[in-house]
TrEMBL record:
The gene is modA. This is Molybdate ABC transporter substrate-binding protein. Keywords: Metal-binding, Signal. It comes from the Bacteria. Residues 1-22 form the signal peptide. The keyword Metal-binding applies. InterPro entries: ModA, ModA/WtpA. Belongs to the bacterial solute-binding protein ModA family.
Amino acid sequence: MINHLFTALCSLVLLCQAPLFAGDITIASGAGYKRPLQDITTLYREKTGNTVSAVFGNMHQIISQASLSGSIAIMIGDQKFFDRSGLDFASFQPVGKGRLVLAWRKGLNLERIGQITAEDIERIGFPDSSKAIYGSAATQYLANSGLMENTAEKLLKLSTVPQVSSYIISKEIDAGFINLTDAIGIAEAIGGYLPADESLYSSIAINAGVLKEFSNNPNVRDFLDFLDTAEARTILKTYGL
């Protein structure tokens, strides 16, 4: 009963994040890609007059939302979560490649990620690996790099990438693992960031998945076509995708 109530509350929170206007279609995305998708949907509306409503959260939340509401036409996130979601997808379109970075608060100056073992780095945030792909990537990276043993007591599990980012900005943590896209978006508010070695965590394929019941919707096809235009690609590239 408690689990069902929690799921319903999560869905309500997601719905409250959507714009107040009714969109031609609704998309859902991992919270770490909110900035580029807001830029793209705004440009899409300006170019076409069509609107797109959007909800954002960790992958667990948006999968639950898609399953419960039946109103989400396109989901954008990591393919591995889609593969085990239990949702029925009609097709997938590549959006970009996700990249893990370590970001740190203002007042610190790191030259390599290995410096997080130092005494002055007391708290390191990362997203929940069961809900956010970058939590899983961070866990893999720490284990495969040999840093886990000397940082385990410093680690703080948070819900989403943006939550980790907000904790870095507010200096509630010294450093945190987030995606490159979010790091670019908050670059002026933090001390800096470094890319994690991509050979030390599983590749992250960011795709747009079309839910089967919307496979013949012309508005869906129109938005996916726009997502593949040079203008949209420029936005994605600007955010590291």
